[in-house]
From TrEMBL, chains A, B:
Membrane topology summary: Peripheral membrane protein
Family under the similarity heading: Belongs to the AspA/AstE family. Aspartoacylase subfamily.
NCBIfam families: PRK02259.1
Keyword flag Cell membrane: yes
Cofactor(s) listed: Zn(2+)
Entry's Gene Ontology cellular component terms: apical plasma membrane; cytosol
Active-site feature positions: E184 (proton donor/acceptor)
Protein name: N-acyl-aromatic-L-amino acid amidohydrolase
Species per Swiss-Prot/TrEMBL record: Onychostoma macrolepis
Residues involved in Zn(2+) binding: H27, E30, H122
Location in the cell: Apical cell membrane; Cytoplasm
Top-level enzyme category: hydrolase
């Protein structure tokens, strides 16, 4: 009982998470999110029993229709404050226009009117399991949701990835919410939906909503520790200096080993002519987004992160008690 | 010695395989073939030691440049006799024009001028290992090459798939050669190159060329049996009758189990609302191309094949002995 009282005394009171957005199809060929959003939109009305207000959004309907990542430019790079405040016309790229529509619907970013939490559904060809990708390593709501998923998801590894970028430079849709993350799940080829990946995403979204409902109802969530992977840098493929074509693939020893520590000297690439190229960094780091299909054009063969343990406080909703 | 003489006496003498074409990038986002062809084109001249004449072709350079399957229409459906003899103009789809260019370069299909063997490199998102896909179940050259790959490739399952279609209706690039097959390797996401898949393809091509060189030099290849998978039918995804959108994914119990016998009543799809749909056929058949990314638009969730054992004779080149 004393421990219980202490928990409450030391807990952080946070505003309720009243308005949630679940978005998919931000990249039109990441199909688990596309079909999950379609399912939710179908059930709308039929199942209005969720005790939290959830808006479900198909972010890029044109790209989804064509089953491509984007039509003119990558929508999920259009949400910086600068881009959101650039005047657009009919001649602007479709995704520039669409990002401002989404910002009007779910934001405005940085304002009190923004949704409380924005969960944007993504898939990757990399063997990343389920990752919550955020811009903050001390967002207690996101970190508690991550802890909840880690506790509840038996067969899917769940990790918390932190992009260390100032919020006004944050470029992705999830940055429009007061809290937000990309829920990134793989491996799944783009343009393909794999049942197990779809189910994991469905489970992740449901567990997130369950947590929010419990939080809003006054449940105290005990603090603890969460491993946070903070991005340090990206590494490009070896390329031909003239044609800029890649000359090597990710090494078989590294492929699919996302979040397994990469040491200096470990094999990183195997060139098409058979030469092994090694990791030349001085610090062992955690690779992820290894051989993500959509990042060839961005010059990213993998990202590297440093891992730290973050202590999170017990939290409860400030609207109750 | 008597066995040896008997082997020669019963062997079939076949014309030498003097001119070989190795094609890749027929689908521009199937990257193992694209990079294999680029590598071969780079080494051209530097390594003119192959004792057989090999022409290496990037089949669809525009699609390859954009990393898409095709620009206007699927090139690998443009090689029927009817399409090859359709007059084209500048207004024709790029791939219609390109198919006739390739037919002029490597064919004409059905003529004595056609290359002796055309190997067209493909990748699939399905877990198919290496397949030689052909239009004949009694092409001794293709079957012997398959047997050679099965014998020599330690870590890759090698199978022979037969599309039971008359040759003039055969629609794919490999049908332009006197002998020909698609060398299809997976699983690999489209738009991604995985090192192990690239290496398997490289090994498959090298073993094919080795076999041809030995064959042309007068080696007798002993006959035997090869399993042939003949396509019976394709099965589409369950779809919404109005929107035509898919309403289910391949069942987790079937996903990745290409060439594992599917029995009547076995789970086939898991709907997005959680319902299991079962295989309703009366005959146990072998599924392949399970959940191939490029076939959503073609209405194919998987293909089903019947397996038979085909006896192939001993063969040698008729130019020697």
């Amino acid at each position: 009982m004393e421990r219980h009282n202490n928990l409450w005394r030391n807990a952080v009171a946070l505003p309720a998470v009243s308005r949630v957005a679940v978005c998919g199809g931000t990249h039109g060929n990441e199909l688990a999110g596309v079909y999950l959003v379609r399912e939710r939109l179908k059930r709308r009305g039929a199942d209005g029993t969720e005790p939290v207000s959830v808006v479900t959004v198909m972010s890029n309907p044109r790209a989804t229709q064509l089953c491509v990542r984007y039509v003119e430019t990558d929508l999920n790079r259009c949400f910086t404050q600068a881009m959101l405040s650039t005047p657009v016309s009919e001649a602007s790229p479709y995704e520039m226009i669409r990002s401002q529509e989404l910002n009007a619907l779910l934001g405005p970013k940085g304002s009190g009117q923004a949704v409380d939490l924005l969960c944007d559904l993504h898939n990757t060809t990399a063997n990343m399991g389920l990752c919550l990708i955020t811009y903050s390593d001390r967002d207690w709501i996101c970190l508690h949701i991550c802890k909840h998923l880690q506790r509840e998801m038996a067969s899917t590894p769940v990790r918390y990835v932190h992009f260390d970028i100032p919020l006004n430079e944050a470029y992705s849709l999830d940055s429009v919410g007061k809290h937000g993350f990309a829920m990134e799940i793989g491996p799944q080829p783009h343009g393909v939906v794999r049942s197990a990946i779809f189910s994991a995403m469905q489970e992740g979204v449901q567990l997130m909503l369950d947590w929010i409902c419990q939080f809003n109802s006054g449940t105290l969530f005990e603090g603890g520790w969460v491993d946070v992977y903070t991005t340090v840098k990206n590494i490009d493929y070896p390329r031909d200096p003239e044609t800029h074509e890649i000359t090597a693939a990710v090494h078989p020893d590294l492929q699919d080993r996302d979040f397994c520590l990469l040491h200096p000297g470990d094999p990183m690439f195997l060139s098409f002519s058979g030469e092994t190229l090694r990791y030349k960094g001085k610090e062992a780091l955690y690779p992820f987004f290894i051989n993500e299909g959509a990042y060839y054009e961005k010059g990213i063969a993998l990202s590297l992160a440093r891992k730290k343990r973050v202590e999170i406080p017990s939290v409860h909703s400030e609207t109750l008690r």
